[in-house]
Design goal:
The protein is an alpha/beta fold. It is built from 15 helices and 14 strands. The strands form 3 sheets. It has a 7-stranded mixed beta sheet with strand order 4-10-9-8-7-5-6, with helices on both faces. A 4-stranded mixed beta sheet has the order 1-2-3-13. Strands 11-12-14 form a 3-stranded antiparallel beta sheet. Helix 9 links the parallel strand 8 and strand 9. Helix 3 runs antiparallel to helix 11, helix 7 packs parallel to helix 8 and helix 12 packs parallel to helix 15. The longest helix is centred in the last third of the chain and has 22 residues. The radius of gyration is 22 Å and the shape is globular. The mean pLDDT is about 95.
């Protein structure tokens, strides 16, 4: 705990609940930040860290990217908030999304991923006139009541009654059914139990809120076939995977097109912007098109957010920048290095990830779904990240949280981080922190 951080944290706690505006910001030391540039974040006492947290993945290009900031400055110099009609920036941003995302014929803008998800859920229920939603254990879709359940659940609550918050009406939670990722039979069972009553199946195509569960071959295709057969809506929540793994999101890589796609997080490189895209038929149910699903939000499509999105997508599309080639190369370098390090120290581990995302699970055996993650050594996971922070690589110090690489990271950053990881993991192995995992296979 640094002196300036401590002072600021005490001041914040007197006027903000717990001293932070989001519960996930209060973990470990009372972090207080002075600046962020490129791949580096610096605290109030001047200590710098290579940032792999990336604001939960929102930072694609690097912090304080001049191309994005300059576009935002130009936009707000001419137009702030009118709240009527439309703007050229809104139309330009929408067209860029439609050109990029395979499922996108019509697009709406929101400020947060949570808003995009609740619009998708409402739309699906209205279009199908059905009450139930299927989500997957371990997937996170924001703070909307209907899906605020069953993310990082303890073994006794996984797939059962595990609300993320008090104050939610039980009926809202009861109409959300829980399946297991990479287990089509668990979804089939829910359709059999509720015939003709399921409005939508929603999932992160790669559940990054529990690290990086990769879809098995045929899983996403199976969901597409199943939802089509049952006449319900398939929703890909690409708030994290969208724009990070490919311009068209993970659906572009998988070759599977959902009915609706939520996106955001990184499309504005840290500025508040998200959205929902889908077929013209479905999206025509929103009230501006004469439908009955309310679409409202004074800040939707504001000039700052739209300018950030247009500028960010422009960089992602630029072949001279080669964003995806750069971050995939660094991701492969990091994942390969971590695999070598854990093997060298005899540590039972599965290094997972895709593109710019990497995660190290401490367990024996393969990882396909949430059941496998129950074998993860959560204490070792959090300890690894805390000690990496001490070394100067900022990794969110909570079990199952992923790490992200941005355009601003370099091979030198990755190699330095791997040297730190070798030191940290070697020390943990010598301390016997992984001894209990040896031979433990689920």
């Amino acid at each position: 705990m640094t002196s300036r951080a401590h002072t600021l944290a005490e001041a914040a706690e007197r006027i903000v609940p717990g001293g932070v505006n989001s519960a996930t910001r209060k973990i470990g030391a009372p972090w207080a930040w002075k600046s962020a540039h490129g791949a580096t974040i610096t605290d109030l006492d001047g200590k710098s860290y290579t940032d792999y947290h990336a604001a939960f993945g929102a930072i694609l290009l690097g912090h304080v990217d001049e191309r994005v900031n300059d576009a935002v400055i130009r936009a707000v110099q001419d137009l702030d908030l009118v709240g009527l009609g439309t703007t050229e920036l809104e139309v330009e941003a929408a067209q860029l999304v439609i050109d990029a995302i395979p499922s996108a014929e019509v697009v709406i803008s929101t400020m947060t991923g949570s808003e995009a998800v609740f619009q998708a859920i409402r739309l699906a229920r209205s279009a199908t006139e059905r009450p139930y939603i299927v989500k997957f254990q371990g997937c996170f879709h924001g703070s909307y009541d209907a899906i605020a359940r069953n993310v990082i659940s303890t073994p006794d609550k996984a797939w059962g009654d595990d609300s993320n918050s008090s104050g939610i009406l039980p009926d809202a939670l009861a109409h959300t059914l829980i399946a297991e990722f990479n287990d089509l039979a668990s979804v089939e069972e829910l359709f059999a139990r509720h015939p003709g009553e399921i409005a939508a199946v929603i999932l992160e195509p790669v559940p990054h809120n529990v690290g990086a569960l990769l879809p098995d071959p045929g899983f996403l295709e199976g969901l597409r076939a199943m939802t089509t057969r049952e006449g319900c809506v398939l929703i890909f929540d690409e708030v994290i995977t969208g724009f990070r793994h490919a311009l068209g999101g993970y659906q572009e890589l998988a070759g599977v097109t959902p009915d609706l796609t939520t996106f955001g997080k990184s499309m504005g490189n840290g500025y508040p912007v998200s959205g929902l895209a889908g077929s013209a038929e479905l999206m025509g149910n929103f009230t501006p098109s004469g439908g009955s699903v309310m679409l409202a939000g004074t800040f939707n499509g504001n000039s700052m957010s739209m300018a950030a999105a247009v500028a960010t997508i422009g960089v992602l599309k630029d072949p001279a920048v080669d964003f995806y080639g750069h971050v995939r190369g660094l991701g492969d370098r990091m994942r390969g290095g971590l695999r070598r390090i854990t093997a060298d120290h005899g540590i039972p581990a599965v290094v997972s990830g895709v593109g710019s995302v990497f995660v190290t699970y401490f367990l024996e055996g393969e990882v396909h779904g949430y059941r496998d993650l129950l074998r993860n050594d959560d204490d070792a996971y959090a300890m690894f990240h805390r000690r990496m922070i001490d070394k100067g690589s900022f990794m969110y110090p909570m079990s199952l949280k992923r790490n992200s690489i941005s355009l601003a990271h370099t091979e030198t950053d990755i190699d330095r981080t791997l040297e730190q990881a070798d030191d940290v993991l070697g020390g943990m192995a010598r301390e016997g922190m992984f001894a209990a995992l040896q031979g433990r296979v689920g």
